[in-house]
Amino acid sequence: AKSGLAEKICYYESSMDEAARVRRNTARDLWTAVENDELRLLYQVQRSLGDNSIVGYEALVRWQHPTRGLVPPVEFISIAEECGAIIEIGKWVLAQACEDAAKWNGDIKIAVNLSPAQLTDPDLVAFVRQALYRTGLSPRRLELEITESMVIADRTRALHILRQLKALGVTIAIDDFGTGYSSLDTLNAFRFDKIKIDRSFLKDSETNPQARTIIRAIVALGRSLEIKVLAEGVETKNQLDLLKLEGCEEAQGYLFGRPEAVEAAEARLLAQG
Ligand code: C2E
Ligand code: CA
Ligand code: CA
Ligand code: CA
């Protein structure tokens, strides 16, 4: 009879093959996702904690795959980065987000996530300028979110492109703040307009007093550097109260709303008046 171990090894190998196969197929399908019009944007509301007004929406991409259904970004963004399709996907996201936001009334920001690879694309700055021009969206309404890792990868070049983007009049937010290797160094290297406190700190804040102290310190840091601070991942009233007590300016999370289709985001804006 076959030994259990041999069977386990076989199973392990075939599941490795299976994972590799899924990644390969995903990469292949990603190359045609844009031209086949399979990408969708959802929008998540961002609110001021001072007067509860809507300050912006973050654009979050989804992939409507012909057989797999709605695929979340965790299942394809890293593959798109690996195979290079992220450049086309990122451009589609930028163009679509600007087009949608240009129709909204008021001074509502549209926040768009940028991948590290996009910050090395020589066409990025011209593409953003063109998207703004074509849609008529005011540059100060566009906010680009970048994570620390992307500044670290090719720092000199990334910083150069960030400065060019800022010269267009768009604002730059540092995403997932506090989770990178050198948050303070990154903050020091560039004049960011907004810090987004990673949701892990808020998640821990009710059970771990240290997490709350860190939130307090980031809010103080933002205040002294004159950088806006937004807390991500607010799920409970308790967390909201804590953020208000600590003087955090803006927040985003399921408590205010899940990522929603553009029609729902527009209805929410109209309801606010
Ligand atoms: P992120 O930029 O940190 O976006 C926030 C994520 O947290 C979103 O997940 C959002 O749905 C989720 N979230 C918001 N509020 C809450 C909350 O209260 N509780 C919890 N548990 N989660 C909350 P999503 O949409 O699945 O996106 C995941 C990540 O995929 C994003 O993280 C971002 O890194 C990436 N991503 C999404 N869209 C794009 C895109 O257009 N381009 C690029 N390059 N990356 C994207
Ligand atoms: Ca983000
Ligand atoms: Ca984030
Ligand atoms: Ca994240």
Automatic annotation (TrEMBL):
Superkingdom of the source species: Bacteria
Residues of the full protein shown: 527 to 799 of 799
UniProt-recorded name of the protein: MorA
EAL domain residues: 23-273
